[in-house]
Amino acid sequence: MEHKKTYHSITKDTSYGNVVIEGPVPSDRLKNYHFDEGLTAFRPAPKQFEALLQIANFPEGRIIIARHNHTIIGYVTYLHPDPLERWSTFEMPDLLVLGAVEVTERFRQFKIASSLLEVSMMDEFMENYIIISTEYYWHWDLRGTGLNVWQYRKVMEKMMAYGDLKPSTTDDPEIISHPANCLMVRIGKNVPQSSIDTFNTLRFLSKHRRKQ
């Protein structure tokens, strides 16, 4: 499968000035920007920036960024599932994982994350993919937001809706280990029925294996 990427961008006005939301951005352009030190949800900022540069070089990898001047203050990543994860079982070329979405704290009040998802879906080629996001409550910033798991879950669903991702059922052990966890899914309008059928088997892989 050839992975085509078409650049799009929008500009948002904030009290700190304009924020440009753009992508997919290749690694050679990413290197020209500073990575905000507050982007530490997954690993220390320098290490996370290295990870983004690597993802941008993958054939299917997509990095959409939000930047204030020359500083990246938010991002969202898309790539194939990790080879060690359940979602890579059938090695589907048209399955992408929304791997991470993060916005530095001082910009979170401006709905930057929602805009990152909106810009992501401006590329018509995204209609060729099934896109998933696995949401686990232990990754959520409950302390920083003061929300409980159910309130945060509602926030996540509302944000993901900007990318047209919706909750979907699964028997994945990690997701069903807590009722607040969820699988979010977007199936592009050009995805063939054969891929949808394979994905449905993947969603209920445990059940499928028991039948074999």
Could you provide a short overview of the structure?
The chain is α+β, with helices and mostly antiparallel strands and 212 residues long.
Descriptors:
single chain, alpha+beta, Aminopeptidase, 9 strands, 29% helix, acetoin dehydrogenase (NAD+) activity, AcuA
Characterization of this structure:
By secondary structure, this protein is α+β, with helices and mostly antiparallel strands. The chain has a single domain, classed as Gcn5-related N-acetyltransferase (GNAT) (Aminopeptidase), CATH 3.40.630.30. 29% of the residues lie in helices and 26% in strands. It is built from 7 helices and 9 strands, in the order E-E-H-E-H-E-E-E-H-E-H-H-E-E-H-H. The protein has helices at 27-30, 45-57, 112-120, 142-145, 149-161, 193-203, 205-211; strands spanning 8-14, 17-23, 34-35, 62-68, 71-79, 95-103, 130-135, 166-168, 182-187. Strands 1, 2, 3, 4, 5, 6, 7, 8 and 9 form a 9-stranded mixed beta sheet that branches. Helix 3 links the parallel strand 6 (95-103) and strand 7. The chain is globular. 34% of the residues are buried. The mean pLDDT is 95. It comes from Cerasibacillus quisquiliarum. InterPro entries: AcuA (IPR024699), Acyl_CoA_acyltransferase (IPR016181).
